[in-house]
Amino acid sequence: MTTLPPPSPRKLGLVIDLDICVGCHACAVACKEWNDGGEFGPLPDKDPYGAEPHGVWFNRVHSYSVEQALPDDVTRELTVHFPRSCLHCETPACVTVCPTGASYKRAEDGIVLVDADQCIGCQLCSWACPYGAREFSEQKGTMQKCTLCVDRIYNETLDEADRQPACVMACPTRARHFGDLGDENSAISQLVAERGGYALMPEFEYKPVNRYLPPRPRRDGCDAKPESREPREATLDQDKLPGALRWLDRALSR
Amino acid sequence: MRPTFSIIFFTVLSGAGYGLFFLLGLGLACGVSLTPYQSVGIDDFHFGRLAIVPVIHDPRIRVAVFLAIGVLLTTVGLLASVAHLGKPLRAWRAFSQWRSSWLSREGVASLVTYLPIAVIAFVLFARPDAHIDLRLLGLLLVLCCIATVFCTAHIYSSLPPIRAWHNRYTLPVYLLLGLYSGSLWLIALDWLPIRGALYEDAVKVVWLVSAIITAPACGWLKWRYWRYLDTDAHAPHAGAATGLDRLGTVRSFEQPHTEENYLTHEMGFVLARKHSAKLRAIAFWTILLAPIATLPLTWLIGWAAAWLMLIVGMLGIFVERWLFFAEAKHAVMAYYGR
Predict the structure, then answer these.
(1) In CA terms, which of A87, A220, B4, B297 is 20 to 30 Å from A78?
(2) CB contact under 8 A, B266 and A78
(3) Chain B residues lying within 8 Å of A120, measured CB to CB
């Protein structure tokens, strides 16, 4: 069923500390390794050792430069590495748009999964996700996504200490934390409260469960937000258009 | 978004088919007579000598052609959408989740629409003496067509991460362009030189009026839509997407992967943005002018003008639909700084 289950008190998820992530991609590699052999694998690649390898990863690590304006016209560049994966939203549209019931949210812990045996590969769920959590596998013909290592965290054949997502286990700086974000008293909920953890793009109202911890304030206390905004896309150069289109452009931009 | 031909064919062809069925159903609902009748005409098939002869008109031949072409359009459209699937043989599963999914609802509605079509064909050709009210069947067909195109439009307009689709223009554009293309198909088919099978003139006038009225309405809607699209004040950027804009101006300096991935391939399509002005102009003018400019030609070149109108109009809709997909930006691209 792709209608959402009633809200569960248990909300398993990740908390990612942007202050200490060094962008080593160990989480992404460990995720790929575990899930390639795990219950939701394999994660086959097209042309894996060739010039243009192409395949599904559940975890992608972006790198951003944040320009901060300091007093006296001085600017400072802050480097922030940003791992991006499924946020296991409370009201995910990727589940409700699914026409087959392959995409579902678990009632007991809120993990969002894809049943590969039911998925028809229409890719509508990936269109519905603003976080890019879902990637379509050309090789399998079905959609794949982060499973929060559901085949690890409940796996009784593993030592109790190892019952954590592969990305969390692999992180060398302990920038990733796993736990129940529905329980106010859990260690990670307290970490979120203490560090001002935030959800990504709440305006979509999908209610992400995962939280990101912002970089800590700099020691010099200069964290002023600069006035300038990001440059927008280059605008159309009307002078280069032929007469008829220039007229149309003027008519359209009126 | 990458404009996949399977989905463009699906939305354009099925839209045209349901537009055609809508007008056909409307005619039946209004009680257009389909009983054969006799009139006098010039029999120009007697070469060498023109003869005034009684001609038997059977409007059911026309309706048979319309039904066949309508079924062809909608079925080819639906099959094209199946071609887009990663697992086409599992397509039947898509009928199950109509409670939450517009795609599933579209599938169910499109199947249900075949029912009134089948009954109409049965009553007309197999059991003309059956006491089944064609008016009621026509009304049912009209409602089914509206519901199906309504669901098709909602597949796209229900996706908040794609601002170009998640707006109030998507639904009226899908409905109106469906009606528009359906009118073009009916006018062209009615001009087919099939002998002795005229459909009622009043019905033809409805199709012509429908084509001529929907053309400027579609043009105006698309014009408003493109103006809306060009003001991207709410488009997310890397700062808002990462939540880091509270710290400063955010710029992506390294991608997570050196090669393309599914997301950048599927959602980072940029070709259309470069040529959008030209393609918009082509779509706008062909849709607007197809019925208006070719109608006067019917006195000169007869039925060929109606087919010219159909080809030009459909070309315009294909360009419009290609742009609908190609120009759409997905919110996830903000993470990539694109």
Answers:
(1) A87
(2) no
(3) 85-88, 90-91, 93-94
How far away is chain B from the Cα of A15, in angstroms, using its nearest Cα?
14
Say yes or no for a CB contact (<8 Å) between B280 and A248.
Answer: yes
Residue B13's nearest CA partner among B317, B327, B291 is: B317
Taking an 8 Å cut-off on Cβ atoms, the answer to whether A226 and B249 are in contact is: yes
What is the tens place of the pLDDT at every residue in B299-334? 777 778 889 999 999 999 999 999 999 999 999 999
- For the domain made up of A12-213, the CATH class stated in words is alpha beta
Would you call B259 and A54 a contact, using CB atoms and an 8 Å cutoff?
yes
User: Mean pLDDT in each 10-residue stretch from start to end of chain A (254 residues)?
Assistant: 84 97 97 92 90 93 92 88 97 96 95 96 96 95 96 95 96 97 96 96 95 88 52 55 69 64
Interface test with B, best of A24, A77, A122 (most B CBs within 10 A): A122
